[in-house]
Specification:
The protein is α+β, with helices and mostly antiparallel strands. It is built from seven helices and ten strands.
Length: 277
């Protein structure tokens, strides 16, 4: 199997296309804002600011393929930042130089033809490089982060699809807890409780704090064939482990599990858990 045919590689290429589309839209908006701002602030001839910004933004678009290639070599992650940082510093410097040289070349070619004047940048002046370099370094960071976030979102989607497939095919659920990946049979999940952005999952072998929503866990357990139902806005139980249901008035109840735990049952979900009574 070639690298490009691997699911993760295909996902990266798809996310790169989405990031490119967003980048093009952003560049068009930036081009109009920059050109009109120069006209308003400096009251320059109508064509010059537009021609200047066309050269700058066109050169940026020409360099777009540069970003995915760098990410292939040095992905953005905390774990490998020592190896990636030197690569990105060198790539940022190369990006600055290429951007400046390309837009200067375009302006030198177009100014005499369209404006009847010569364009002068001053490549030998360090201040010009500092002026352009600080903007390009900022642009490099923002653009690289955009491509990296797009890849991360696509990889998360790919992982979610794999989790769903595993639930249906193997009747197991996969939880991310404390930096570990935990594989559980659906029937081993006894009770789960929402805890902010996490879910506290009680199983036959212990408890795990998983970064997901209770709704996501409920869906996965259902796909895995488990007999799990929502009994409260913040609680999910395995019906096979419900021992008794005691009404508390006004339609609410308390469910006692065979583990000795008690879980509140809301009248909103009464039809779901009443079947065990």
């Amino acid at each position: 199997m070639t690298q490009n045919s691997h699911p993760e590689s295909r996902a990266d290429r798809i996310s790169d296309r989405w990031a490119l589309a967003f980048f093009v839209v952003f560049m068009l908006a930036s081009f109009v804002i920059q050109a009109t701002s120069i006209q308003i602030e400096h009251r320059q001839a109508a064509a010059e600011p537009w021609l200047r910004e066309v050269a700058s933004h066109m050169s940026l678009l020409m360099l777009v393929p540069f970003f995915p290639r760098v990410l292939d070599v040095a992905p953005l992650s905390i774990r490998n930042w020592r190896r990636s940082a030197p690569v990105h510093l060198a790539a940022c410097a190369a990006f600055i130089v290429l951007h400046v040289l390309i837009f200067v070349a375009i302006r030198k070619l177009t100014y005499p033809l369209l404006l009847g004047e010569t364009y002068t940048f001053g490549l030998a002046d360090p201040l010009n490089w500092i002026y352009e370099g600080r903007k390009d370094a900022y642009g490099y960071g923002i653009t690289m982060a955009m491509f990296a976030l797009a890849r991360m979102a696509m990889q998360n989607r790919l992982e979610a699809e794999a989790v769903d497939e595993m639930a249906v095919r193997e009747h197991r659920v996969m939880l991310k807890s404390g930096g570990r990946t935990i594989m559980l049979n659906a029937g081993d999940v006894i009770h789960a409780q929402a805890a902010a952005n996490y879910v506290d999952v009680s199983t036959t072998t212990g408890t795990h704090l998983a970064r997901m929503t209770l709704t996501e866990l409920e869906r996965l357990l259902s796909e895995a064939g488990g007999r799990h139902v929502r009994v409260h806005r913040s609680h999910l139980v395995n019906l096979d482990h419900v021992k008794t249901i005691t009404p508390t008035g006004e339609g609410d109840a308390v469910l006692e599990l065979d583990t000795g735990e008690t879980v509140p049952g809301s009248r909103r979900y009464r039809e779901r858990y009443a079947q065990t009574a």
